[in-house]
Amino acid sequence: ASGGLTLLFILLLSIVAGTVALERFFRFTRKEIAPVGLVSSVEKLWQEKSFESLEYMLAKQASTLGRVMLFIVKHRNSTREIISTGAGDIASMEIRHQLQKTYPLAVVATIAPILGLLGTVFGMIEAFHVVAYSGELGDPALLADGISKALTTTAAGLVVALPSLGLHHYFKNRAVMYSLFIEKQVNDVINDW
């Protein structure tokens, strides 16, 4: 209550950050991007030359690696350069799409401390108005109370911004790791075939 309207906006930003983080923890997983065992299943069917079964299995896959493998299987008669470029484009686009979903965390990490600072400035102005209207120097307790309330918004902004920034970098790093894993898998498959 002492933070006023600014603190309400910071609270809303914390809800946005929490929602985005939860969604990313549940939807940006290894299973969704590059499931374990997919490549070995693909290699088995590839060696058996069961291309229709392979396409059917990969079409049902809801993962980035599955879509990349499907592209490779469908274009198996193309040159290595075409397959490599196409597979890389699919993987890159999907990883960027996943990474874009973490962007709100960066926005919250940027806006929350600025809102906190704005709340502090408004609080300081109000505190000095109280001292000015009380006459003389006023009661130092009035000034201290006003400053205390003002700094509440700065603290709240930082409390929201720091985890948001940390989570943004965590998911950004996760995207890079998944991207490298997919790239390695695709290169291994292309070289083996």
Average per-residue pLDDT, rounded, comes to 88
Low-pLDDT runs: none
**Helical stretch count?**
8
Strand count, sense and closure of the main sheet? none
* Shape call: rod-shaped
Textual characterization of the structure:
This protein is mainly α and 193 residues long. It is built from 8 helices and no strands. The chain has helices at 4-27, 30-33, 38-47, 51-59, 64-74, 80-100, 103-133, 140-192. Helix 1 (4-27) packs antiparallel against helix 7, helix 1 runs parallel beside helix 8 (140-192) and helix 5 runs antiparallel to helix 6. The radius of gyration is 26 Å and the shape is rod-shaped. The N and C termini lie far apart (65 Å).
Keywords:
193 residues; mainly alpha
Topology overview:
Elements: H1 4-27, H2 30-33, H3 38-47, H4 51-59, H5 64-74, H6 80-100, H7 103-133, H8 140-192
Give a quick summary of the entry.
It contains 8 helices and no strands. It is an all-alpha fold and 193 residues long.
